[in-house]
Amino acid sequence: MSNRLFQGVMHQMRDTINRVIGVVDETATIISCSELSKIGSTNEFIALDLSESHDTFIRDGYTYKPFGPHIKPDYAVFVEGVDEVAAKYAQILAITLSTIKQYYDEKYDRNNFVKNVVLDNILPGDIYIKARELHFNTDASRVALLIRVVSTNDVSAYDVIQNLFPDKQKDFVFNISETDIVLIKEIRAGIESKDLEKLARSIVDTLSSEFYTKAVVGIGTSVSGIKDLAKSFKEAQVALEVGKVFDNEQAIVSYDNLGIARLIYQLPTTLCETFLKEVFKQGSIDSLDHETLFTIHRFFENNLNVSETSRKLFVHRNTLVYRLEKIKKLTGLDLREFDHAIVFKIALMVKKYLTSNPVKL
Length: 361
Prior knowledge:
Layout: H1 2-17, E1 21-25, E2 30-33, H2 44-50, E3 57-59, E4 62-67, E5 75-80, H3 84-118, H4 124-133, E6 142-151, H5 157-164, E7 172-175, E8 180-186, H6 193-211, E9 214-219, H7 229-246, E10 252-254, H8 260-265, H9 269-279, H10 290-301, H11 306-313, H12 317-331, H13 338-355
Parallel strand pairs: 9-10
Antiparallel strand pairs: 1-2, 1-5, 3-4, 4-5, 6-8, 6-9, 7-8
Helix pairs in contact: 1-3, 9-13, 10-11, 11-12
């Protein structure tokens, strides 16, 4: 990484300075240079000078200026010539390269730092110490989005998402598996769930329309403390898993909007099985045929309104009433009564949950 950074500066400054310029590492090996043929060569005598101090020195017609964050210099910039101009060029280049390297190292370390916080790979007591070292804003509001690639067209979704969020000081993107990408997005305080869903939708639509890549996104809750980023990430994971069970057609699933599905997902399967047996004492939920279940779902969608449901189903009102009576006989639950309808709705969700063989996080 450093070699490429330094070489980019050498290339840009070559014509301006109009002298041979370059950088050596602590072994006095040239790692970047305006004359490409010199890269890789070593002058072991210079290594002795590098180990002494950060002071400028002259060797073999070149002016050297060591630099680096440590007591012993990590690098030295060199400029052709032994005059005062060469010394000034060397000092300017050393300051420039040192600043650029610090920026990139900090950015890289920040990304790793955020990843370790999110994945609980750093001790709580070390989080704020490391954050201070990296000048990381610990109080900003952020949210975790988990982007899962379902199908791809040999396109790097990771690169696409990085390009969508180029501000590396505020937004962090990293892979946690071949299919899962995490985006930690800095947001304004008090942002609404619908705005986060719009953000997620833009990611899904860009991947789909421009790169023929299908993805789903789980959204955690927004948090204001850096330690809570792990919590937001786990919520994004749960959102995807719960969404897969209860809303498998949805590409965007927000933890805030999971509702009762979130509660059911956290229940032990043995408790769920007991619940179903107790609810359907008169007959199993499996005794309901496809048409009956379809009618039930439509009845719930229309807020238990018999007239509206019959209209949507294109059946006579009395036909729907007959079906509801049939359900009552089979299950003992009258869906026209609000309490019975709630129990039945939960039972359907519990049944779906058990059938899905959920993966607990």
